[in-house]
Write a structure and sequence with these properties.
Radius of gyration: 27 Å
Number of helices: 4
CATH class: Mainly Beta
Shape: elongated
Structural class: alpha+beta
CATH topology: Immunoglobulin-like
Strand order of the largest sheet: 4-3-6-7
Number of strands: 7
CATH architecture: Sandwich
Mean pLDDT: 89
CATH superfamily: Immunoglobulins
């Protein structure tokens, strides 16, 4: 006598095979994704957070007119700091970093003219979101300014 076909063992085995294949696929997909950190030294930056907050507060108090403006027609970024800081030999650096790709980060020295402005050429910067950070010293006082910029490519 022939036994009737029972689909349960085949269904259970198929369910386990699909589960294992799905799990392996998810692990392979997760391991193949890029995991760039915005900053390689994020832990050190977090430890110095209070010092940074003091710099930001000092900038808001002493240099409230600090600005960065992107001109998409000229493809330049114009930085404006107080003229008094430029006259008192302010020195520092400008960091343009791209949150989506750490390899595109750019550093520039702070080189203000007598009126406290500096122009950066944005011709070679890809379009998209950039974070501009300016850190500078005037005497013993440290200052920090940050701003988000969205660069566009003009035809």
């Amino acid at each position: 006598m022939k036994r009737p076909f029972n689909p349960w063992p085949l269904g259970i085995i198929l369910a386990f095979v699909l589960f294992i294949a799905g799990t392996v696929s998810l692990v392979v997909l997760a391991c193949s994704q890029r995991s760039d950190l915005v900053r390689a030294d994020y832990y050190d930056q977090e430890m110095r957070h209070q010092e940074q907050m003091d710099r930001v507060a000092r900038t808001q108090l002493d240099a409230p007119d600090t600005r960065a403006v992107y001109d998409d027609h000229l493809n330049t970024i114009t930085l404006s700091l107080p003229a008094a800081h430029a006259q008192n030999a302010a020195h520092g650096q400008i960091l343009l970093y791209r949150p989506s790709a750490a390899s595109l980060d750019r550093r520039y020295p702070l080189a203000l003219d007598a009126s406290g402005t500096q122009h950066l050429d944005a011709q070679n910067l890809p379009a998209g979101l950039w974070h501009l950070q300016i850190s500078w010293n005037v005497g013993q006082e440290e200052y920090f300014y940050s701003q988000k910029l969205v660069l566009n490519q003009t035809p």
